[in-house]
Design brief:
Helix content: 25-40%
Number of strands: 8
Strand order of the largest sheet: 1-2-3-4-5-6-7-8
Largest sheet: 8 strands, antiparallel
Order of helices and strands: HHHHHHEEEEEEEE
Strand content: 25-35%
Number of helices: 6
Shape: elongated
Distance between the termini: 46 Å
Structural class: alpha+beta
Length: about 190
Amino acid sequence: LSSLYAEPDHYTQQLRALEQHRRDNPEAPEAAFLVAYQYATCGHHAIAIRHLRNVIRLLPEDNLAPHLVTLFEAAIESNSSDTTSAPSANKAARRQLLPIEASTLTGTWRAARRGKVRIELAFEGEKKFSWTVDDDGHVERFEGEFVSGGTRLILATEEGRMIGAVTPRSLGGGFNFRLLENAPLDPGLDFER
């Protein structure tokens, strides 16, 4: 955002003033949210998450802040999995979130929605995927690359990406895939082999 200012120092001064306002008003959720927003737009997701957790503490009924935390955590995981020189703290955090490994996803998985909608999600190797939807005979398919880390699964194509939460199902295997943009209202899709 500093590029929108004639002098980048003016932005920095205003950000520091906002941070001071946040320190002076620790119980003001709007101040925490504004600081989180500023840091998120600058790509400092870890700092944004810290302030969003305060919003969640102050406004437990709020739906936006938890959703943003999940998105920013996925962005951090995605970025840190793309580099081999990720800080050791990020590596330790990723080791604690090991419910889904790429190797366990290999193969073809199926889910259904509203009776006539069938979804097939196939993973090949440790990077390629295809997603096929058959909606009562109308079939659409897209493919691309995937990244899995912790409880996140990112499916990326040339047109965009889907970021979802993956929860292993204990009975009979399989997993639930829930798009983060639909959280927390969407029950997700239950995939089985």
